[in-house]
Amino acid sequence: MVELGRHTLRVVRQNYGLAIGVNLLGLVAGAGGSMNPVLAAMLHNTSSIAVVGNSARLVNHTPHLPRVDESLLRAAPLEERRVT
């Protein structure tokens, strides 16, 4: 659970960076007069789709489980299991 939470926070930070970067690019281009409102709206919607697509990667996340020592999984011999 901890690893999934950390991975989720990394994806959230990536999404923030992606959305802010694309919107900042659109803001600068719009302020410079090189982007019309329709193109700006399409750029914004495209960044929203990219954020959703990036978040969808969490569905396929497989945690890295620690290695298990096989000797710990075996039952102890009967002599070691007796209660005295």
Note down, in words, how this protein is organized.
By secondary structure, the chain is mainly α. Helix content is 68%, strand content 0%. It has 4 helices and no strands. It has helices at residues 2-31, 37-55, 70-73, 78-81. Helix 1 (2-31) packs antiparallel against helix 2 (37-55). The longest helix has 30 residues, at 2-31. It is rod-shaped and about 85 Å long.
Describe this protein with a few key phrases:
84 residues; 0% strand
Précis, in short:
The chain is mostly helical and 84 residues long. The chain has helices at residues 2-31, 37-55, 70-73, 78-81. The mean pLDDT is 84.
Bin the strand percentage: under 5%
Count of helical stretches: 4
By helix and strand content, what is the structural category?
mainly alpha
Q: What is the N-to-C order of secondary-structure elements (H for helix, E for strand)? A: HHHH
Distance between the termini: 40 Å
Largest sheet: none
Radius of gyration: 25 Å
Low-pLDDT segments = none
As a percent range, the share of helical residues equals: 55-70%
Strand tally is 0
Mean pLDDT: 84
Cα shape: rod-shaped
How would you summarize the topology of this molecule?
Layout: H1 2-31, H2 37-55, H3 70-73, H4 78-81
Helix pairs in contact: 1-2
